[in-house]
């Protein structure tokens, strides 16, 4: 059986755990615990969230959600090895989340041929100017053209959009 890894990365509270839960067609492993400091939410991921999409008997996609806090970045190295695709989640209008994008692009060595997309989350909750303009500027500096979507991680149809986009990116990169 072929196992491909998809990493879900982004700042704390960007929706990684929720998105994996909505994509997985198996029971997910969730490593959220009560946060000991104020991070804007009650629970935080301290391990690795995991789910799967079984395409057929020969292909399984592993959905790996890594903690958003850099102090847990030692877990990112495991996910980085043999990575097939990356989903970067950015909280809308969060300066911290946008700044983290540059670090994540470097850390995960995102190149134009990497199946990768960016999801802007919390657009439904946080009004005001979207983060899309700032994200495009960061990508332009790196000569990267990646799909950018405003998504709601709670909606299964948004999770499916991300999955379909990754498949299309893979097909485009392989010329199929």
Low-confidence stretches: none
Q: Beta-strand level of the residues, as a percent range?
A: 25-35%
Structural class: alpha/beta
| Major sheet attributes | 6 strands, mixed
| Number of continuous helical runs | 5
Shape: globular
Keywords: GTP-binding, Hydrolase, Nucleotide-binding
Protein name: ATP/GTP-binding protein
Organism: Marinicella sediminis
Pfam family, one: ATP_bind_1
Helix-strand layout with pairing:
Blueprint: E1 2-10, H1 16-23, E2 32-34, E3 43-45, E4 49-56, E5 59-65, H2 74-80, E6 83-91, H3 95-107, E7 116-121, H4 132-141, E8 148-150, H5 156-174
Parallel strand pairs: 1-5, 1-6, 6-7, 7-8
Antiparallel strand pairs: 2-3, 4-5
Structural key phrases:
176 residues; alpha/beta; six-stranded mixed beta sheet; 5 helices; 32% helix; hydrolase; Gpn; GTP-binding; ATP/GTP-binding protein; Gliding_Motility_GTPase
What does this structure look like?
Pfam families: ATP_bind_1. This protein is α/β, with parallel strands linked by helices. The chain is built from five helices and eight strands; from the N terminus they run βαββββαβαβαβα. The strands form two sheets. The chain has a six-stranded mixed beta sheet. Strands 2-3 form a two-stranded antiparallel sheet. Strand 4 (49-56) and strand 5 (59-65) form a beta hairpin. The longest helix is centred in the last third of the chain and has 19 residues, at 156-174. The model has no long low-confidence stretch (mean pLDDT 87).
């Amino acid at each position: 059986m072929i196992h491909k890894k998809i990493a879900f990365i982004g700042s704390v509270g960007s929706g990684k755990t929720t998105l994996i839960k909505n994509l997985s067609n198996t029971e997910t492993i969730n490593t959220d615990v009560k946060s000991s400091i104020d991070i804007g939410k009650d629970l935080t991921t301290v391990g690795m969230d995991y789910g799967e999409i079984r395409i057929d008997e020969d292909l399984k996609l592993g959905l790996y959600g890594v903690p958003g806090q850099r102090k847990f970045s030692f877990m990112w190295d495991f996910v980085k090895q043999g990575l097939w695709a990356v989903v970067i989640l950015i909280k809308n209008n969060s300066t911290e989340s946008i700044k983290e994008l540059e670090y994540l692009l470097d850390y995960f060595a995102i190149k134009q041929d990497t199946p990768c997309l960016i999801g802007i989350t919390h657009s439904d909750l946080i009004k005001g100017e979207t983060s899309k303009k700032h994200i495009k500027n960061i990508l332009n500096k790196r000569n990267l053209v990646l799909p950018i979507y405003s998504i709601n991680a709670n909606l299964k149809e948004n999770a499916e959009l991300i999955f379909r986009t990754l498949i299309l990116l893979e097909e485009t990169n392989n010329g199929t």
